[in-house]
Amino acid sequence: MKDRRVILRIGGSIIASPIDPTVVYTYSSTVRRILNAGYRLAIVIGGGGFARNLIDIAEKLGLAEEDKDELAIEASRIVALLFSKCLKDLTNGVVAKSLEEARIMFDSGILTVMGGLKPGMTTDSVAILLARELRADTIIKASKVDGIYDRDPNIYRDARKLSRIKISELKSIFSDDRHKAGISRVIDPEACRLLLETPFKFIVVSGLNPENIVKALEGCPVGSIVEP
User: Over 80: is that where the pLDDT of 172 sits?
Assistant: First the structure.
């Protein structure tokens, strides 16, 4: 196998809503399996319900949007650190807090785990920027939904799942271009813009079963594939 570099984006809706030790352990085992198959992996983890709980409290306290962003970032880093500790022999039990740190760790052969990066940026965007930094060719997102739909399946019964979609078509589906702390989307608006600037294969699968990540890497028809 060639040097195939993959960014795994684990949604906070899967791993932190709430934080479940069984889910964390199962995902850590899946990561080991992927690495043993010869892939080079870096991981970005969201804060999910854990982060949103902090944001709700911050809202009641009258804190500014930037303050909420900072709390969400720290929450995602705590979840990422917990995950890193479960793979301590591979990660040294730390998380990268910048793209430069991530690249140094990756180039040193350390399994790289990240949470949020800076205010105004979701972990979807972090995953895309990390893919740029590490010259990865694929991003796989494990989400609470099983792919990308033409409209919200939680609202519209006739919503249709798109097995394949062009990056250029994403903006028409996710038309809200405003950032808000704790935003929960299959792919957030800023990430859509970044994908347009630097195309990657972006695969969205249901994270309720981590086996879907392995299937996606093997080329099985699971989830939705966003193509250049």
Answer: no
Count of Cβ atoms closer than 10 Å to residue 30 Cβ: 19
Structural domains for the chain: 5-227 (3.40.1160.10)
Is residue 147 within 8 A of residue 133, CB to CB? The reply is no
SS3 225: strand
CA 118 to each of CA 94, 114, 187: distance values in angstroms, whole numbers, following the listed order: 18, 12, 18
d(CA 32, CA 189): 31
Identify residue 107 by its one-letter amino acid code: D
Residue 118's CB is within 10 A of a number of other CB atoms, namely 12
- With tokens 């930094």, the residue in question is 133
- Cα dihedral 188, 189, 190, 192, rounded to 10, equals 90
Structure confidence at residue 1 (pLDDT): 53
Q: Note the helical H segments in 87-147.
A: 88-91, 99-107, 123-134
Whether pLDDT at 208 is above 60:
yes
**Residues paired with 5 in a beta bridge:** 40
**pTM of this structure:** 0.91
- At 190 the pLDDT is 82
Residue 146 pLDDT > 80:
yes
